[in-house]
Prior knowledge:
The protein is of the alpha/beta class. The protein has one domain (about 5-190): 3-Layer(aba) Sandwich (Pyruvate Kinase, Chain: A, domain 1). About 35% of the residues lie in helices and about 20% in strands. Helix 3 (about 80-85) links the parallel strand 3 and strand 4 (about 90-95). The longest helix is centred in the first third of the chain and has 15 residues, at about 15-30. It is globular, with a radius of gyration of 16 Å. The termini are far apart. The model has no long low-confidence stretch (mean pLDDT about 90).
Amino acid sequence: MEKSIFYFDDVGESNTEAVVKAAARRAEELQISHIVVASTSGKTALKMAEAVKGSSIKVVGISHQYGQKEKGEWEIEEEYKKKLDKLGTVITTQSHIFSGVERSITKKFGGYSRVEVISDALRSLFGKGFKVAIEVAIMAADSGHIPVSDNTEIIAIGGTRQGADVALVLRPAHSGDFFSLQVREIIAMPRAKED
């Protein structure tokens, strides 16, 4: 099989439209039923949901956990949440798989955890959006919002800072079975990485 990959010159939100279009097209080609997208405010999830509106593709938006920015607060914006609800898009949140409690231990006591090493290796080698795409796929699996099996493929979308700049086809896995996750295709990613 021969497929093209979108390579962007830079990271970030300016790539969102191209990522959304490419992900929607590839989901249709592969008959993928779930697209997982990192979306702090809900804006990027809404763009993806609108792009596949009328199809059988389910969009799952993953936002930051409550308290990420302010104690007890969620960062999903109400205007996006209402529109996403109307489109049947699931928005979920949980602790970040690649940090969570591990990061709080590092902050308090120093050192570096094995989970943080995995996170930094993915970020350094492939970029932040790539790491985020893998992370949100695991979060969606652990939340029960996507199917997980040896035969399942989904599309996972991540970004650097805001918006989307990476789209992957992958076989998802739960966090407790991390090493069975497989990146099957790169649909889009930036050539440059954020330092």
